[in-house]
Amino acid sequence: MNLLENIREGLRSIISNRLRTILTSLIIAIGITSLVGILTAIDGLQSSVDNSFAGLGANTFDIEGPQDYRRFGGRAEKRVPPIDYHQAMTFKRRFQQGENVSVYASVTGSAQVKYASKKTNPNIQLIGVDDSYLAIKAMKLQSGRNFSLTDLENSLNVTVIGSEVASTLFDRNQNPLNKEINVLGGKYKVIGVLEKKGGFSGGDDDRLVLVPLENARAMAANRTLTFNITGSVPNMKDAETAVEEARGLMRQIRRDALGRPDTFEIRRADELAKDFENITGYLRIGGFGIGFITLLGASIALMNIMMVSVTERTREIGIRKSLGATPQRIREQFLIEAIVICIMGGLGGIVLGIGIGNLISTVVSQGNGNFVVPWFWMAVGILVCVAVGLFSGIYPAYKASRLDPIDALRYE
């Protein structure tokens, strides 16, 4: 009995036991689905985040006030004051690439906006911005216009609103432009509506109300606002130089003493993307571990089924041995059966895993991610299936090859 005939015989055995083959393949399919599905979902989320940061650009950086208490020399320092309006505007004026700098401040993240009898939930972000904010933050207008210098210099009551705010306050056939909405007790004319962004941010960028910076300062009344700065450079190769220049200038403006830590934080857009990529790396390890444990259970179940198959076919093994089949050929037949069953289950599991993984990433990213076909994880899945088949089939195959033909022929 040659190898080719052995393969045919193994396939015939699989076909003759369809129900058992299907159920066994389903066990493997569930394991591969968990493995490929989890890893596909993670890749889909990574794609969504990459798309979000691609819009912002890797050549941007944010300067923010201190987030917590700082330690120096083993002692906790007093909380340093946030970046104020004077410091932010001084930075924008003195930075060499000041035309690529935006200064903005968040007034509140729980504003309620009204129009006529309609009103939003109290979860609207109210932000005071300048005329560079939309361009540097890569926000596109669905309709209307950006803030002009006249709007900013004269502190006009005009606003640019997010898509969710517009859909909540206005009917589908109603044009929001030039309508007056009520923002924290003041009337503001809508001059622009932002495109829907959604995505990994959870829709926060769609719940925005932007007003001129001076208006935001007036809205804050006696509260102290924290002003943030976002800068960009034309070329990626200049990003590192620009960040260091910005750090030096900001230390000078903030009067940070030599040898003391910065009283502000600078974060580059690509650093945020790298941070998330590191997190997804750990998630992949965890996902692979969960899938591996599931497959280990499936392989033990397959081994048990193959052992039952050997017992059921003891007489058949005795007949083949009496006709000249060698132990090697007997082992090959059972290994081929185990591997084919695993590959059948693996192919079904890969299809299910890709579908489920992309569905999860689409739901989490609110439709912002692309459909991901994880070719690498598909290849890994097939290799794992072959490995599981070998692991599950090698002992039953060895046991079958060691049967004595005389005893096997007597088996009932």
Automatic annotation (TrEMBL):
Keyword hit for Transmembrane: yes
Transmembrane segments: 21-42, 282-305, 334-356, 376-398
Domain ABC3 transporter permease C-terminal: 290-405
Keywords in alphabetical order: Cell membrane, Membrane, Transmembrane, Transmembrane helix
Taxonomy, superkingdom: Bacteria
Secretion signal span: none
Pfam families in UniProt: FtsX, MacB_PCD
InterPro entries membership: ABC3_permease_C, MacB_PCD, Macrolide_Exporter_MacB
Localization in the cell: Cell membrane
Membrane topology, from the record: Multi-pass membrane protein
Start and end residues of each MacB-like periplasmic core domain: 21-247
Similarity annotation: Belongs to the ABC-4 integral membrane protein family.
PANTHER family, sorted: ABC TRANSPORTER PERMEASE YTRF, MEMBRANE COMPONENT OF TRANSPORTER-RELATED
The protein's name in its UniProt record: ABC transporter permease
Species the sequence originates in: Larkinella insperata
Organism phylogeny: Bacteria, Pseudomonadati, Bacteroidota, Cytophagia, Cytophagales
